[in-house]
Design a protein that fits this description.
The chain is α/β, with parallel strands linked by helices. The chain has a single domain, classed as DHBP synthase (Alpha-Beta Complex), CATH 3.90.870.10. The protein is built from 5 helices and 9 strands. It has a 9-stranded mixed sheet, sandwiched between helices. A hairpin with a 6-residue loop joins strand 1 and strand 2.
């Protein structure tokens, strides 16, 4: 959906420690390159976000995300097959490829594959195809659900807001589930309903 010119613009912004805002299938997000510590700090500053709250990693496909996790247990593979792309964030043990500044020094990282063509084109515009992300809003405030809300909430702070090209967000945040040796733990029920039996 994005033109080659816009993809090149996004790539240049991100590679120069920039932060962008964009639509996803659930709510609007903020993102930067995971390897840019400067840009990650900027996201925390924009949102006035508690440094103890980690960012998550998102891509248009599961494969670019695999290197950031230690392994994907069978129960997580089942959830990925059923709900990716979609409104599910999985929290897994992170690998050495995931910087501590993304995860607030936790040993886990959240990964998600949104079901949105504009977001997919953004990922395809950068070599790693992965963004460090969070919702587009100030901390403790509702996330942006439209382009106009994104402009209103954080437009003056980000380097670029990608237009949605007619797509809309559902307005329901992703479900967040941790997959560990002792099973599945639901941190937040959201767009996708699951329980600890992986149904």
């Amino acid at each position: 959906m994005l033109s080659n010119e816009e993809q090149q613009k996004i790539k240049s912004i991100l590679e120069n420690d920039g932060v962008i805002a964009f639509i996803t299938d659930t709510v609007w997000g903020l993102g930067c390159l995971p390897e840019s510590k400067k840009a990650v700090k900027k996201i925390y500053d924009i949102k006035h976000r508690d440094s103890k709250k980690p960012l998550i990693l998102m891509s248009h496909d599961i494969y670019p995300l695999i290197k950031y996790v230690d392994n994907i247990p069978k129960s997580a593979q089942i959830l990925i097959k059923k709900h990716f792309p979609g409104g599910l964030t999985l929290v897994l043990k992170k690998s050495n490829e995931t910087p501590d500044y993304l995860t607030s020094n936790l040993d886990t990282v959240g990964i998600r594959v949104p079901d949105n063509e504009v977001f997919a084109d953004i990922c395809k515009s950068i070599p790693t195809q992965v963004l460090a992300t969070t919702s587009a809003n100030l901390s403790s405030q509702p996330p942006a659900l439209t382009y106009d809300e994104a402009v209103k909430y954080i437009g003056s702070e980000v380097d670029y807001i990608v237009k949605p090209y007619g797509l809309t967000s559902k307005g329901i945040s992703s479900t967040v589930a941790g997959v560990f040796d002792d099973g599945v733990k639901i941190f937040r029920q959201g767009d996708v309903f699951i329980n600890d039996t992986n149904e």
